Amino acid sequence: MQISDVTEAASALHQFIQQQQPLTVLTGAGLSTASGIPDYRDAKGQWKRNPPMQHQEFMRDGELRKRYWGRSMHGWPVLYNAQPNAAHHALAELQHQGLLGTIITQNVDGLHQRAGSRDVIDLHGYANDMICMSCQARSPRLAMHERCIDLNPHFAALQAGSAPDGDADLETDFSDFRVPDCTACGGILKPDVVYFGDNVPRERVERAQAALRNSGGLLVIGSSLMVFSGFRFARQAAADSQPIALLTLGTTRADSLAQLRLNTDISETLSSLLLTPA
Ligand SMILES: [Zn+2]
Q1: Domains, in order of start, for the chain
Q2: 124 catalytically annotated
Q3: Residue 132 annotated as part of some ligand binding site
Q4: Would the pLDDT of 156 be above 90?
Q5: What is the arithmetic mean of pLDDT over 203-220?
Q6: Helix axes 141-151, 62-81, angle to 10 degrees
Q7: Which helix (H) or strand (E) holds 231?
Q8: In angstroms, what is the span from residue 188 Cα to ligand 1's centroid?
Q9: Max Cα separation, the chain?
Q10: How do residues 6-34 score in pLDDT, each as one tens digit?
Q11: Confidence at residue 172, expressed as pLDDT on a 0 to 100 scale
Q12: What would the mean pLDDT of 98-104 be, rounded to a whole number?
């Protein structure tokens, strides 16, 4: 069943949650666009812009890393300063009421936790943490950001629009950009996120799969599930005969697997759902 009216969608989702509680929730970029974080894909699941950098490119190409950090210096503060929106708060409230179980998120912005949700699995990592690819030392992204500015004041003075995942729209000659290395070992520093072409750590996938198996079903919010790392949970739920609901504008890869498809605004629908009498 597909619904395109907010009031009807909230009512149907309310009923779905009551029947299947606790639900596992899987969230994607569409949840955080209302927090000012741009999305990569359009309503048909197609790229709106050039696909993001792949892990292998980042590791082997020093010139691409200069470009990456030169742009991140402008784009990352948008991610860092973003605030949870009504949808993050609604999910935290529903989780607090015991209606939702684990929240698996494909987002790297940490906004579920900041809205007060517990039991969140950051499937693709957390963009505000850094990891050294040689010695595995962890460090805050803020420190990296400040080192980039200190080493590259002339790049910091440029103007650029924000892009998804802490990237920015900035085209210039980055050959003079100085990329900070690990202060402990001189290794390559990388945000602790799973890039395209990289695998989600197995332990993390298994933890998410177990959470889904032990819940009443799957609610996908704000994701077209075009990336397999998210789609696999819809496949698992379908294989285990667990019901699936989708709340996202546009088409998804799991449309044929879902019992309930809500093609409505995410924040409006979840806010309306909270007002629905029990
Ligand atoms: Zn290191």
Answers
A1: 2-275 (3.40.50.1220)
A2: yes
A3: yes
A4: no
A5: 98
A6: 120
A7: helix 228-239
A8: 7
A9: 61
A10: 999 999 999 999 999 999 999 999 999 99
A11: 85
A12: 97
